[in-house]
Amino acid sequence: MARKKSILDDLITLPWWLNLIVAAVVYFGLKYYVPTIEFKSPAFQVFGKSFPNVAGLFASIFVLTAAISAFHAWRKGELLDRQTSVKSIKDLPWKDFEYLVSEAYRRQGYSVQENLAGGSDGGVDLVLSKDGDRTLVQCKNWKSRKVGVKTVRELFGVMTSEGAAGGIVVCSGEYTKEAREFANGKPITLVDGPALSRLIGNVQKAPRIQPAVNDTSCPVCHSPMVLRTARRGQNVGQSFWGCSRFPKCRGTRPA
Question: What is the pTM of this model?
Answer without folding.
Answer: 0.70
